[in-house]
């Protein structure tokens, strides 16, 4: 069975998974600031800010949830503070 080695697989813009994870982690303070200012951030805004990179988008949502934010669901596509 073939397996995917995350260290060498290139995602969008030629980044590895680890590079994408680090970039998503570094963008979280910007999203947290927007949430504090506006009360929420829409999923579409996050997708635009990560340049429609699916891996970074999913990782960003994961890290926001880890940090105590409500990331919503398919009916409420927004991130806000609990």
Structure explained in plain terms:
The chain is mainly alpha-helical. The chain is 51% helix and 11% strand. The chain is built from three helices and three strands. A three-stranded antiparallel beta sheet has the order 1-3-2. β2 and β3 (78-81) form a beta hairpin.
Please describe the structure with a list of short key phrases separated by commas or semicolons.
82 residues; mainly alpha; three-stranded antiparallel sheet; 3 helices; 51% helix
Could you tell me the number of beta strands? Answer: 3
Helix segment tally: 3
Instruction: Give the biggest sheet.
Output: 3 strands, antiparallel
Average of per-residue pLDDT values: 88
Helix content: 40-55%
Give a short synopsis of this structure:
The chain has three helices and three strands.
Give the helices and strands, then pairings.
Layout: H1 17-38, E1 40-42, H2 43-49, H3 54-66, E2 69-70, E3 78-81
Antiparallel strand pairs: 1-3, 2-3
Helix pairs in contact: 1-3
């Amino acid at each position: 069975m073939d397996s995917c080695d995350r260290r060498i697989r290139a995602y969008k813009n030629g980044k590895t998974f680890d590079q994408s994870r680090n970039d998503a982690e570094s963008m979280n303070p910007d999203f947290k600031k927007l949430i504090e200012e506006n009360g929420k951030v829409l999923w579409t805004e996050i997708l635009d800010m990560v340049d429609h990179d699916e891996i970074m988008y999913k990782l960003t949502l994961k890290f926001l949830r880890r940090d105590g934010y409500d990331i919503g669901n398919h009916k409420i596509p927004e991130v806000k503070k609990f």
